[in-house]
Specification:
The protein is mostly helical and 107 residues long. It has 3 helices and no strands.
Length: 107
């Protein structure tokens, strides 16, 4: 389960990076004032592209946070299991050493 969530997490992170790079910032509008604007219509309408990409980015960011929290929770649960195994091993080692250190009584 951990590997599946991790793969989805990485996939969402890559999509999120691409979405952020596709969006143009507020400074890009200044370039249009100097003749670089051209037509402002696009496949999504004049303002639809920014809204679509913004909403998709927000959805992907939310999914990214959910997968991050899920991975942290699962990792914490696995760490608890590891700690309990380690404590048991230390206790067992201490018991073995105390048994080995016991004086030998001759018959």
């Amino acid at each position: 389960m951990f590997q599946v969530i991790l793969a989805v997490h990485i996939f969402i992170a890559l999509i999120l990076v691409v979405l952020v790079l596709l969006q143009h910032g507020k400074g890009a509008d200044a370039g249009a004032n100097f003749g670089g604007g051209g037509s402002s219509t696009s496949m999504f309408g004049s303002r639809g592209s920014a809204t679509f990409l913004s909403r998709l980015t927000a959805i992907m960011a939310t999914l990214f946070f959910i997968t991050s929290i899920t991975l942290a929770y699962i990792g914490g649960q696995q760490a608890k299991g590891y700690q309990s195994v380690t404590k048991e091993a230390v206790q067992q080692d201490a018991a073995d050493k105390s048994a080995d250190d016991a004086p030998v009584v001759p018959n």
